[in-house]
Amino acid sequence: MDNNMSINENLSLGKRFIKFLAPSVVAMWIFSLYTMVDGIFVSKGAGELALAAVNISMPFINFVFATSLLFSTGASTIIAIYLGKKDIKSANEAFSLNIATITILSVLIALFSLLNLDKIAIFLGATDSTFEMIKDYLSIIILFNGFFMVSYSLEVIVKTDGFPFLATIGVIISALANIALDYFFVIVFGWGVKGAAIATGLSQVFSTIFFLVHFFKKNSTLNFSKFKINFKDLKRIICIGFPDSITELSGGIVIMLFNQSLLKHIGESAIISYSVICYINTLVLMTMIGITQGMQPLSSFYYGRENLYNVKKLLKMGLKAVTFASILTFIICMVFTKPIVFLFINPMETELFKYSLHVFRLFSVSFLFLGYNVIISGFFASIEKPILSTIISLSRGLVVISISLFAMIFIFGGEGIWISTGVSEFICIFISLVFLKSNPLHVKSSNKSNNESNNEKLQALNN
Questions:
Q1: What is the pTM of this model?
Q2: By the number of CB atoms within 10 A of the CB, which of 2, 18, 101, 199 ranks highest?
Q3: Alphabetically, which GO biological process terms does the record hold (predicted)?
């Protein structure tokens, strides 16, 4: 039985890469943009202090997505490998096991979080002026956390199923719903951060329903099926998904560290500036993750086929795409700093606005480097080398950035906070390149895969 990944093999590898990359990046952009719009509505409708409250709450949302990523990325890779081997039964079982597991986990997270809401708000760094707003925001997000987790997992697996554009449509549906509901709940009804949280939660409900419908259709290779708890597959899924999960979770931890450092060395107003930076940083990071996710299903598929020529070629394509995106992003941030900051901060707040322009430019240097670490880590995950992927993710996402943050503060004081991320990403590039150079691919290829590889070479030359 052919699957949707196999059907696309009549296209050249470059065209297949673009076919997966484009919707992945667009989906990530839409996700990031509607997150930004959420921040803009909060800032304009509830005030800049409310924007800071949402930023302080972000590590919890990072935790929710990290939990989803722990299973979703790994499941996507395992499913793609099974599809490459034409083992549809095992692919369906891995798919069903993944969704059941994260659904159960989401219920447990909701119960624990609601029972410890005050403690969570304080742990995240709530101040006297933001405590109640943080509780209002989190109490609603917690109720919807299951939809966050399932929606994201289904979005990733839809692409693995061979329908990358459906993933984009699902994200667009969620984005448009969130923007429309934000307008009514925050601006028209004046519900403040509560309204923003309800809008975000409902948008995830809509996208979850959209993706679920796809997997009940006949044109889907993947379908829900009976499954036994396969601990071997579950272990593989967790090991592969761990690096991406750590990246997301570490992002939340780093936000907490930055918020606490800003409060200590500069003051509460600096958190507002950092909130703006976080929204743009998310957009840039999601662009790089989108490029990586465009590469990963194909890389895993050909790794399952033991076609190492295509696997290596996909990595080169991904690195070229990251280089282009990094340079373009940096130029945009340098040229359009004022309009970007204006979206969130009123220029009448003269000192805050000027300070935000200054620190945003300092932070933007990191955008030149982060994409390389993200895609190399994602590449290792796609070929089942989770240890290497985890080391890179932990380095850039937690260990090196934490050391860099404290070192830059020690050397430059509060100003060092804003350059610490750029220093960290630059150091991590060397770690990523060392792993890439010292770990060549080794798979015993069959004659069939060798013939496929030779055919791909001829096709590439002809194109």
A1: 0.74
A2: 199
A3: response to antibiotic
